[in-house]
Structures
1.
Amino acid sequence: MSAARPFTQVDVFTPVALRGNPVAVVHAADGLSDAQMQDFARWTNLSETTFLLAPTDAAADYRVRIFTPGGELPFAGHPTLGSCHAWLERGGVPKRSGEVVQQCGVGLVRIRRDGERAAFEAPPLRSEPADPALLERVLAALGVPAAKLQRAQWLDNGPKWLALLLDSADTVLAIEPDHAVLKGLAKVGVVGAHPAGSEAAFELRAFAAPIGVPEDPVTGSLNASVAHWLMGLGLAPTAYVAAQGTRLGRAGRVYLQREGDSLWVGGHSVSCVRGDVVF
Amino acid sequence: MRHAFTQVDVFSATPLRGNPLAVVHDAEGLSDAQMHDFGRWTNLSETAFLLPPTDPAADYRVRIFSPGGELRFAGHPTLGSCHAWLARGGVPKRAGEVVQQCGVGLVRLRVADGRPAFAAPAMQTSAVDERLLADVLAALGVDHSKLLRAQWLDNGLKWLALQLDSAATVLALAPDHAAMKGLVETGVVGLHPSGSECDVEVRAFIACVDVPEDPVTGSLNASLAQWLIGAGVLPERYVAAQGTRLGRAGRVHIAREGDTVWVGGDSVRVIEGEVAL
C-alpha cells in the first residue's frame, strides 16, 4: 500500500453535477506501477480513470495516462477535459496563461481555457462510405425507417463510429435500439438537428454495445467527428452546441468551434468527489 | 450541499482486491432522485446513503441504490456501510454489535476483531430442471461428470448453484458469456485441497444482468453456506475465495452458530473525502 494521493472525480460536459460523464483523477501519481493504475481503473468501473504525472516533455504542463477497465488509451476527450479541470483546481499553474498543454499517449494536446469552459483540439478525421447492407441492419436494430436517414458515414479519429444523420432531434430521441443486435454490428452514433432557435443545435446519441456499453452518456470523440463531418458538408455552422445523454437523464453539452484548420471541442467540468486515495 | 464520502473495498483487507462500494455519509436532505442519480453516476454495483435511524433500536439507517434502482438489502453494501460508519466514528448502542436499519427492516451485524458479519437471510431451495442444467453446463464448458450437485438457492436473490469436483475445475472455467446471457444467474463452488488458505473457490456468472462475472458476491456465498453446511459438505466455519480469475482476492468468512449462518468480511477504505451534490 502506498501513501495517500489527492483524488478528484469530475463530471465532464456539464456545469451541473451528475448530468455529464464522470472521470476519476488520481493526482501526483508518479511512482504507481502500470499494474496499479490498471487495477484501480478496473476497480472504479468508470469508462475512464486518469493519472496525473510530472511531464517529461518540457513544453507540457502535466502528463496524463488514461485507463479504461480494459486497458490504456493514447487519448480520449472527456478524460482530457476532466484531468485539466482537476489539475487546475488543485493549484496547477500553466506555463502560458489561457492555455494548458497536456502530454499523453498521442503527444502534446493543447487545451484552451474559455471562461468556465475548456476545449481541446480535435484529432484529424478519416472517413469512408458505409456499406448499404450493414446500414440496413443497423437501421433495423435502431427501429428507424430508411426514409428518416439523411446521410451515413464511417468516422474515425481514433475511435471509429458509424455515424447516421437522421431527419430530426425528435427522431434521435425516440430511438429504442435492440442493443443485443447492435452488439454484433458496429458502434453507432446518431445525430439530428433541433428546430432553429433551440438551446442546442443538434441532439446526439452514442450506442456502443460492441464494447459492452449500451449507450454512452456524453462522447467527446464522436462529437468531434460529427462536427468535422457536418461542418465539412455545410450542414452545421462553424460554432454550435450539441446535446447528448438526454434519454439517460444526463444533460451533456458539447461546444464545437472551427477556427481555420482547427476544431475545438469544449465543455464545462464540475468536481463532485474530492479527497484522498490510498491503494 | 457537501457530504462526507467514502469508497470502500469489501471482502478484502487489501485495496482493489474486493468489491467496491460508494458510501455517502450524513445523507439526510438528499432526495430520492438525487440518490438514484448518484447511484447511477458512480457506475458501481451499489452506492449506499447513511441516514439517522428512524427506529430507536437501530444504530444507523442505510438506503442502497444500484444504477437500476433501490434495493431493500444487499450483502456487500451492508458490510461496507457498517465499516464506513464505524471508521467515521459511529459508536454502536451495544458493544460488539451494530444494528442496521434498511428496506427489509433491522439487520444485526456482529463485529468481532473489527470484521463485520451479517446473519444470512432465510433461504429456500428447489430442484433444477435437467434441460436447463445441461444448457448451463454446456455454456460453462464443463463436463457433466465434474458436477457433484446442483440446486436452486433463493434468499431474495435466486441462484442456480453448482458444486463442481474441485476448486481447480472452478478456476479453469472459461464460460461462453453470450450463451450464459440467455440463461440464469449461476454460482459455482468447488473445494480446495485440505490445508489450503481457503476452503472453497466460488465464481458468480451473471451475464443475464449484463455483468459477465461478479467479483465477490455476499448473497451467493450466504446461500452456498446454508446449502453445503446443511448437506455436510462443508464445516461450520470456513473461508471462501472469490474473484481470483478477475485479479481480485475476495475472502468471505462463514460461521454457523445455532440456526444462524454469519457472513463476514474485511473492508478497507480506498477513497476518503467529500461529495458535492
2.
Amino acid sequence: MNKLPEISRRRFFKLLGAGAAVAVILPGWMVSTDTESINPTGDPADLSSWIHIGENGKVTVFTGKVEVGQNIRTSLAQVVAEELKIPVEAIQMVMGDTDLTIYDRGTFGSLTTPNMSPILRKAAAAAREMLLEMAAEKWKVSKNLLTAEGGKIIYKKSGKTESYTALVQGKQLIRTLKEEEILTPPDNWQVIGKHIPKVNGRDFVTGKHIYTSDMHFPSMYYGKILRPPAWHTTLVSADTSAAEVMDGVIVVRDGNFIGVAATNPDLAVQALSSIRAEWKTEPQPSHREIFNYLKENAGSGGGRTENESGSVIQGMTEADIRQKQTYQLHYIAHAPLEPRAALAQWEGEKLTVWTGTQRPFGVRTELARLFQIPEEKVRVIMPDTGSGYGGKHSGDAALEAARLAKAVGKPVSVTWTREEEFTWAYFRPGGIMEVSAGIKKDGTITAWEFHNYNSGGSGIRPVYNIAHQLTEYHPAESPLRQGSYRALASTANHFARESQIDDLARSIFMDPLKFRLKNLSDERVIAVLKAAAEKFGWEGKELPDNHGKGISCGYDKGGYVATCVEVSVNPVNGQLAILQIVQAFECGAIINPDHLKNQVEGAIVQGMGGALFEAVVFEGGRIQNPFFSSYRVPRFSDVPPIEIVLLDRRDLPSAGAGETPIVGIAPAIGNAIRDASGIRLTTLPLAPDGVVKNER
Amino acid sequence: MELLINDKSYNVATQPGQSLLSVLRDELNLTGSKYGCGEGQCGACTVLLDGIPMRSCILPAHSASGRKITTIEGLATEEKLHPVQDAFLEKEALQCGYCTSGMIMSAVALLKKNPSPTRQEIITFMNGNICRCGTYNRIVDAITLASSKIKAQSHE
C-alpha cells in the first residue's frame, strides 16, 4: 500500500511530528479531464496532496492551490471536515508553498473545486476509514460497528470512544488513496452545502493578515526597476552614476535590466529617478487602430476550428432571414488592488521568495531558469493575496526581487506601483468577433458562423442546437502583452453570441427568452434561464418609457449562467442607468452557498466594468490611463441591486464558480440598451462616458 | 516628529514629504493600511485624523502631527471587535480583503458622523473606496448592520 519513497516519508514526519497521514498518489483514479494539474510527471512519488492528523489533534491539509479571495481556504477545509467528521476550525490549510505542498500547475481555470476538492475529500474519507480501522483493531471489533463523529471513533454498542488524537499517538502511518473511497452521501452532509464563515476572516477585518507587500525583514532593502517609457522599446544607454554614489543605494545592471535597491522606499525612488536613460521605441498601433491591426495580423490560412458540423452554406440557404454583425472589445486591465509584490531572500544557494501569484510552482520554475539553479534550491511561498482575477500568473516581481537580493546580499522587497501594474502586467486581450447567422421564420436557427480574432477560444461554441455551424478562433499578434483574465474570451464570445441571438429574435418579433428556449435543449442552460427570468419577472414585466430589459445565457467550465438586466436610456442625452440585475447560476453541488453567492455577485460587478467603461488607452506603446483616476473601475454608485438565484444540484459534481458568472452581464446590458433605445452597441465597453451613442 | 497613533505616542524620523502611509507601513510596521494607488483614488490607505477619514498615501506625515491618528490596528479593543468589523464578518463583506481596512475605516467615520445613514448616503460617502472583488452591496449591508449594532450597544 505504501509506495512512498522513504525520503518523502522521513521529511514529512520530521516536519509534522508523528501521526497519521493520507497521501494522494497517482491520478489514475481521477475522472477529471485535467489530470495534468494534479500530477505533471506521472511519477508515483509525485504526490498531489496530503492530509495529516497530528498527535496534538491538529489536522493539516496541504495543497498547492492558493487563496486570492475566492475562499477556497474555506471550501477545501469544508470538504475535509465533512469526510473526516471534524469541525472546520480543527483544520489548518497549508497552501501554495513549494517546499511544503506538492506540485500544482496553478490556481486558474475554475479548477480548484472540480479537481482539488474531490481529491481532498477522498483523502479525508480515506483518513477517516484508516482511523476506523485503527480503532477496530484496538477493540477487536468489526469496523462496520464503529462510527466517526466530532473527532472521535465511537463504538455505540459498548459506549467506548477514542479520539483521533489518542489513536495516532506515536504512530507514523501513511495510507495512500484508493480509487474508490467511501464518501458521505449528499443526504448526510453536515458541512458541505452549509455556510461556513471565511476561515481567517478576523485577520482581514483587523488588518492583521500579512500580504506579501506587508512583509518586513530586518535589514531588508527596497527595490525599484527602471522601466522603459513604452512597450517595444530597447535601451540605448543609461547613466546610473548619480544613483551609484548615493548612501544606502545599490545599483544592479544586468543587460537591459537596471534596478536599484535602497535602505528605504523613498531613497529607492530617488535613486531610480536619478538614472538618465535613452530609449528607442518602435512604431506600433494605438487603441484606435487596434481592431484593424489585429485582423491584419491574425495570420493567414484561417483560424483554429473549434467546432464544425453540417454545412454553413446549406444552413444559410435554408434560412429565411440572414444577419451578419461584427463585434469588438478593447483591452482591459485586471487591476488587482494589491499590485504585484515579492520579497526575496538568499541564504547561500537557497532562494526563498514570497510573492502574490496564482502559480507558485510556475514562478519557482521561472526563478530556477533565471539563476540556472535546480528547482529544489528555490522555495516560493504565496501568502493569501490581494486578488488576481487571472492577472497574477507570472512571476515578474519575484524575478526582480530575487535579482536585486542576489546582488545586495540582503532580502529585497519589490512592490509595483499602481502605474507599473497598469502598464507592465499583462492585459485581457482585445478582439474582434464576426458572426453570420440564419434563421427560419418560426425562429429555428439554421446556420451559425463565428470567428474570434485574438481574444480567444473559451466559451466560443454556441449553446444552441444548430444543424450547420462553424466556429473558429484566429490567434493574432498583439502589440500589448496579453494573458489570462477571469473567464478570458468567454466574455467576448458570449457578448457577441448573445447580442446576435437577441437581434435574430427581434428580426421576427419573437420574445428573446422564447427564442432562446426554442433553440435550446441543454436542460441545465434551460433551468438557469427560466430561474433568472422568473425571479426578474421577465414575462409581462411592465417597463416605463425608455426603460428596457435584456437577457443572456451560457455555460463554460462546468458553470451555467443566465442574466437579466433592466436599464434606462435617457432619450435626450443618452444617459444610461443600470437599474436591476438578476442572475441565476448553477455549478453542480454547492459547497458554501454564501461564498458562492459572493463570487457570483463579484463577477457581475467586475464584469460591469469591462461591459460599460473599462478600456486600456494606448498610443506608441505608452499606456495613457495607468491610474485609477484615468482608468475607471466599478464603484459603489455603479452597482444596482443584484439578486442571485443559486440552483443546487447535489446529484452533480461541484464545478468552479470564479469565472463563468462574469460572462452574462455584458450581453444582458447590451440587449437591455437595445430594448430601451433601439441602439445596438457592438463594442465593449458599451458606454465609456455613461452615455449611449450610436456607434456608426 | 511625534505622532499619536491609536492612543500611543511614537517618535519617528521622517523624510521630507514622506507620506503618512509610508511612515505607518515602513517605519512603524503598522501594515493594516494598504497601498493601492498612491493618488488618493482607491481608499485602501484610509485612516482617521481626529475622526475624519483621510487618504494616508497622499497625506504628508508632518501634517498629521499633533492630531489623533486611528488606523485599523486601533479599532478592536482587547479581544472585542468594533461593531463595523463584526458586521463585515457577518455579511461576508470581503473577498481578498485588501480593501477591507480602508473600507472599515471609512465606514467607522461615516457612522460617527451619521449614525443612521440611508443606503444612498452610504453609497455617496463610500464611493471613494474601491473593492475590485466587487463586494459593494455586501459592504453597504454591513454598514447598515453595523449602524443598528452601534445603536443597540448605546441603548444597553
